[in-house]
Each structure stands twice: as C-alpha cells, then as structure tokens.
Amino acid sequence: FFCPGFQVAPETKAVMKWLRSIPFVLSASLHGGELVVTYPYDYSRHPMEEKMFSPTPDEKMFKMLAKAYADAHPVISDRSELRCGGNFVKRGGIINGAEWYSFTGGMADFNYLHTNCFEVTVEVGCEKFPLEEELFTIWHENRDALLNYMEMVHRGIKGIVSDKFGNPIKNARISVRGIQHDVTTGN
Fold first, then answer.
1. Residue 109's closest CA among 52, 44, 33?
2. Distance CA 119, CA 26 (A)
3. What is the pTM of this model?
4. Taking the domains of the chain in order of start, what are their residue ranges?
5. Does domain 23-156 have CATH number 3.40.630.10?
6. Is 123 a catalytic residue?
7. pLDDT tens per residue, range 6-49
C-alpha cells in the first residue's frame, strides 16, 4: 500500500491500528484548499498516468456517499463556475481521487483496502490554511453536509451474522454478488 522506503509517521500508525481494532464503516478526512469531495481510489492503477479514473468495486456507493455530502453543502452545490471549486460544478462537486490527482498512502484507500470503512476526502474550503476568523464560516458551511454524510451510515445491509445457536460469528466474510470487495463482521 505504501511506497517502499516510505516512512509512516507514529500518529498514522496509531490511526491505522485504531481503524483495525474498531469496526468503523464510514469516515471522512477533512482537508483545505479546494471545494470538492473525492472518493477512492486516490492512487491510480497506472501510477505514471495523471488524472486517470481509478474506481473501486464499490464505485456506485462511493459516488452516492460523496454526493450526500456535496449536495448538502451550500457552496459545493452552488452551480457557479466562477467560485472556488467551480471547475467541479459539472461533476456535481465530486470526483474520483486519482482522476483529480494520483497519490499513494491516502487514508481513504487504506480504509477501503484494509478495513470495512468507506472514507471520502472533503476539501472543506478554498484556503489551505484558513485564518482563525474564517473557521466559524467554514464550520457552518460544512455542518449540515457532515450530518447528512453521517446519516449515510444507515444505508445498506446491517445486522448480526450468527451461528445456529444465535452466537455472533467473528470475522465472517460477507460477499455481495457483482462487487468484488468483501467485508468482515466485527467482534
């Protein structure tokens, strides 16, 4: 997953361990510098190719999750191409990460490949390093979108996989016909 020789920071290792120990199913990484929601894969299948669409087997689900956020965000859903993030208007404010730009070592790809967690990356504002006085506005622009996104955790199939005695089965593999990406049950 990471490039050879790539040093993983201790805090990143801690988050990876945490993600493997708790059965999260949905997360978002918040960044600054643009107004768009990206979804995996962030690393292109052909790393030498720039801006290459690189879908996961769960492409439809990731698009739905990203749209849930983007459609509830007052600026991302604004149809003006003259604003920050305006170049994503024709895409509905979302894009496959590798199609925007490819990079290795992203948490969204890690979560998808190594946990049951689906993660999108939200570029929450035009400034990479917003000023303190801008944070209140950024929070209000993203609050309802975050809540709408979190409600998506209730989509899909959920329940308990158990044996014939009703005992939960740990690490049972769940497969969906037509999607080549299994998930496993928690503890």
1. 44
2. 6
3. 0.89
4. 23-156, 157-186
5. yes
6. yes
7. 677 888 889 889 988 888 899 999 999 999 999 999 988 776 77
| Integer CA distances (angstroms), 69 to 72, 85, 91, 160, 166, in order | 5, 15, 14, 28, 37
Nearest to 33 by CA among 119, 123, 108: 123
Two structure tokens written together for 100:
């925007």
SS3 (DSSP) at 133? helix
> Which of the following is catalytic: 81, 123, 134, 141?
123
Q: Give the burial string for 95-131 (b: 16+ CB within 10 Å, else e).
A: bbbbbbebeeebbbbbbbeebbbbbbbbbbbbeeeee
| Strand blocks (E) in the chain | 26-31, 34-39, 94-96, 118-125, 173-176, 179-184
> Is the pLDDT score of 104 beyond 60?
yes
Could you report the per-residue pLDDT of 67-79, keeping only the tens digit for each? 999 999 999 999 8
Structure tokens at 40: 């995996």
Place of tokens 């917003």: 130
